[in-house]
Write a structure and sequence with these properties.
4 strands, about 70 residues, about 25% strand, single chain
């Protein structure tokens, strides 16, 4: 896999459909199968978090369940 696939600056970012226009929201991008990147939509040049697919799926499960994952 190329290092370009892991580069969030070249990723196709998408914002939640639950976000209204102009509201702060997170954006996510698939890093060519290598993982998921997350950033603040109001600061696209700012820091980016990256997760492996297992970690991302676990995070989503915890968020959807409303528990702390323990």
């Amino acid at each position: 896999m190329s290092s370009r696939a892991l580069d969030p600056s070249t990723a196709a970012w998408r914002k939640s459909s639950h976000s209204g226009s102009g509201n702060a929201c997170v954006e996510v991008a698939d890093l060519a199968g290598a993982g998921i990147a997350v950033r603040d939509s109001t600061d696209p040049a700012g820091p980016t978090l990256t997760f492996g697919h297992h970690e991302w799926n676990t995070l989503l499960e915890v968020i959807k369940s409303g528990t702390d994952g323990r």
